[in-house]
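Predict structure. Input: Membrane fusion protein (MFP) family protein, 460 residues.
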Amino acid sequence: MSKALTARDLEMVDDVYGAMMTDAPTSHRLTIWALTSLIFAFLIWAYFAELDQVTVGTGKVIPSSQIQVIQSLDGGVLQELFVREGNIVAKGEPLARIDDTRFRSDFAQQEEEVFSLQANVIRMRTELNSITVSDMASDWREQVRIVKQELIFPDALSAQKAELVARQQAEYNGRLDNLENQLEILARQIQQRQQENEELTTKIATMTTSFQLISRELELTRPLAQKGIVPEVELLKLERTVNELQGELKAMRQLRPKIKATLDEAILKRREAVFVFAADTRAQLNDMQTRLSRMSEAQVGAQDKVSKAVITSPVNGTVKTVHINTLGGVVQPGVDIMEIVPSEDQLLIEAKITPKDIAFLHVGLPAVVKVTAYDFTRYGGLQGTVEHISADTTQDEEGNSFYLIRVRTAESSLVKDDGTEMPIIPGMLTSVDVITGQRSILEYILNPILRAKDTALRER
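Output follows.
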């Protein structure tokens, strides 16, 4: 059996152990164990539980991009003004209209000329494709062929400019008909030269036969004349006839190359007529294509003037200032008409951070932006990221030094429970909590004790 503790033994132990060793009531012992367990559990929880380390700064919403200055490139008379100062506008929304009467007139004139040039180019290309010249054909009739083709115009041109298409079709037929008439005249000349050549050939053949017969007659008559049977006068007549026939035959034979050359020249002229027509058409086609290219570019500029007569907003934002309000007034090219403060999908917050809190800040840290115009406990804040920290401090009018940081948010508005968006515009004041790290609750509890320990027993 254990020996009972004496009063002296109890004095040798501490109060807690003594209470446990004595015959204290059970409820007291349970309370002591419960408190001990709670303290131990709290210490474990405080060791593992962490809280965010936050650097707090004050700031305001600034435009995420520069203020957009709205101008008119070409100027003109202000016809309509669709917005006023303070209006919220969307990207592409009309802001003002410049009278585009002159622009439309210029565009219509250039469009008419472009259509005309396009039609001429199509006609000339078809003309060139309708003509075929071959050097391989032996028959001069097959060396040049003209086969009319159908003029194919774009649907838009045929629909809008039916008269122009009809004129081009008539000009196409007229030019090819004229060329065919020229070729027909030259063909008759060729046929005439061919006939002359055939007649000459026939004459040469006939005269050759006559010459041969007279020569034979002369050969037979000469012995008879020598014997006195035939008068010498007859012999002389035959000799004169032979000489004349021989001269004429020689002249005809010399004439044959000339007639042949004339025939070849007529055939060549027929081909040259086609070459001249094609060369002239090709030169005009090149000129038309050059003018068409230049006019098409000018038409783009004219169309741009017409489209830019309606001035639209380049961004989503709020109209800050309207410089020109007079309808019917002249707007000079490049003069400011109005200014728009952009409101993009992301907000940019510029905040001030005191120098003592700047040490642990760096680009990329997460932040929570609280807009003072809206109750944070009700609407919450915006999540963002630090994207810029100034390289040096800046002083305000009161002489306070601070660093400027910029935080870009993921959203541009707060949302109510019913889904309604609460807009945030440049200039609204904010409170920015930059999360620089995490510390355990135990560190927060021990920090004052450790600081007191480090600074204890010191004297200035």
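The longest strand covers residues 50-62.
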